[in-house]
Amino acid sequence: MKNNANDYVIRILDSPLKVDAAEWNALLAAQSLDGVLNPFMRHEYLAALEASGSATPQTGWTPRFVTLWQGATLAGACALYLKAHSYGEYVFDWAWANAYQQHGLDYYPKALVAVPFTPVPGARLLARTAAERTLLVKALVAWCEAEKLSSLHLLFASDDDVAACEQAGLMLRHTVQFHWTAPPEGYRGFDAFLMSLSQEKRKKIRQERRKVADAGITFRWSLGQDISRADWDFFYRCYERTYLEHGNAPYLSRDFFRRMEASMPENWLLFVAERDGVAVASSLIAVSARPDCANGKNDPENRPTHGLTAYGRYWGALARVDCLHFEACYYQPLQWCIEHGFERFEGGAQGEHKMARALLPVRTTSAHWLAHPSFADAVERFLEREGAGIDNYMDELERRSPFKSPSLPPPTDPASPS
User: Fold this and answer.
1) Where does the record place Pro residues bias (predicted)?
2) Which is nearest to 181 in space by CA: 328, 417, 347?
3) Domains (ranges, CATH) in the chain?
4) Average pLDDT over every residue of 180-203
């Protein structure tokens, strides 16, 4: 596909491995004022999903990476997948698919611009300028029309992505996540953070942490290359067991995490719970990093921390201990973030219970295009009603702030470029 007026060329690639890693990551870094790389949009992460067999045509994720070229220069790119189902997305459109089926129409395959299995807000359309980002969206729609696909979906998009999608006529959909944000002055420690909460919430957290300590559980953490191979193996045992206990195979293979260990260790923080010296549970946290920190030894004592975020991602346990999940997945990461000057901790998709752990509601946005005019009209009306419901839900949640003052910490926009 070529745009003669602007001398741009669109090339569709069937693998992230066909995109130069340095060029991709340079575009990613340009999406952030701080140059902080969202770990889930790094080329290494996306390449590992395919190379490990986690996101492939066999699992219902067929890559079609869309690239925008000006001469020999990569001006824009996005990770697009043809989907044969709606699993692993966290923005639910099963009702839309059912409606298509009831009318004898095919909803799948659909086009999805997202990070597989990862409900983390951030830049999805990597481009040098706003104009090139808009051009990339229009090229996506044109390609979907040419391929006779039912729809295009961009999930957990940044503000810049949303603006480009709106300009191109896509419909917007909002969901709610729960994130912790430090105040501008930070906290002097976990106790100081607790003192910012209401007495009820402060008491509850202390009780939950005491239950874990009274059960004889202690924690240790490792970052980057300090995570041993044995700890990676133990983590995967926990992660796999959690999925199997719910009757499902894990989305991500052990080989995927081996690739994370090898190609981007600086983006991973591991907490291991032990009792009597024996590991019983673990949680794996992703952390953002600047390109100058991507050396495998991302030292939290020396690196700059402005703009850095931790992301709650994976956990599992081999023993049942009351409140262990809360300690491993919320309190230990929050304490680490406070001690190391991180500004935000994102708790993942959904989970109103996270508010009791000081994670506040934030709005996330996706953008959608449907080829069938009648269905597009119906979905647009549905999104208007759903959007009004989300507004009311946000208002209700904001009245239930766990902090002493609703103004602490200040609200943030999780979809800022990253």
Assistant:
1) 407-418
2) 347
3) 2-177+362-398 (3.40.630.30), 183-342 (3.40.630.30)
4) 95
CA distance 324 to 322: 6
The predicted-structure confidence for 80-110, as pLDDT tens digits, reads as follows: 999 999 999 999 999 999 999 999 999 999 9
Contact criterion met (CB below 8 Å) for 311 and 285: yes
23, pLDDT greater than 70: yes
- Phi-psi sector, 91: left (phi>0), alpha (psi -120 to 50), beta: beta
Task: Choose between 401 and 2: higher pLDDT.
Answer: 401
Q: Is the separation of the CB atoms in 105 and 43 below 8 Å?
A: no
Cis, bond preceding 109 (omega within 30 deg of 0): yes
Longest dimension (CA), the chain: 69
> Cβ neighbours of residue 287 under 8 Å, at least 6 residues apart?
39, 223, 266, 267, 268, 269, 298, 308, 309, 310, 311, 342
Contact (CB, 8 A) for 148 and 110: no
Least confident of 283-292, 294-303, 330-339, 396-405: 294-303
Q: How far is CA 338 from the centre of its chain?
A: 21
